[in-house]
Amino acid sequence: MLANVHFRKTGLFMSKRNVYGESLIKPWLNQAGRKKSRRTARQKKAAKIAPRPTSTLRPVVHPPTQRYNSKLRVGRGFTLAELKEAKISPKLAKTIGICVDHRRRNKCTESLQENANRLKLYKSKLMIFPKGSKPKAGDSTRADLEAVPQNTTKYVIPIPAKTFEAPRAIKSEEKEKSAYKLLKKQRTKKHYLGSILKKQKAAAGTEE
After folding, report:
1. Does residue 186 lie within any of the structural domains?
2. Residue 192 counted as domain residue
């Protein structure tokens, strides 16, 4: 039976390089240097695109799963419904620093309104750069642009603080109602919506 020998980094069976005390672990001693490099790169990028914001506008979304869905974070891009609510076309949005995600869907009216209001606020503060010598309708003058400081914040518009309803006693009518039954009824309505509309259409046709 062979002995269960656990080889060590500076053991006899390793290479000559490790026998003399050198370790296989690669040290990472350039953390401070990399931090400085990232900061200078951010400063160069900001100076290059000035006075435009250093980052693009993104929507506020709830993370998935029950554990994190009470929090707020930024998403990939605004939905087409949110852009429509704010009266901004998807093609225009990409040119004025707004991220668009055509795959994302709005699951509730609250998130739709919240992000639509975020877009409207951004639109109210937006200053369009004139391309040529003569500014077009809606463009800002060069004097206005020179007076405006550059927005270097992470999210352009900060994420709103999450507010929670204060705890209170459960009402008697709330105790009598069942949330499960209500949701079950709504799911059943959604399932049979097509057949219900079909019956209503047939009934309207017979009455005529």
Report:
1. no
2. no
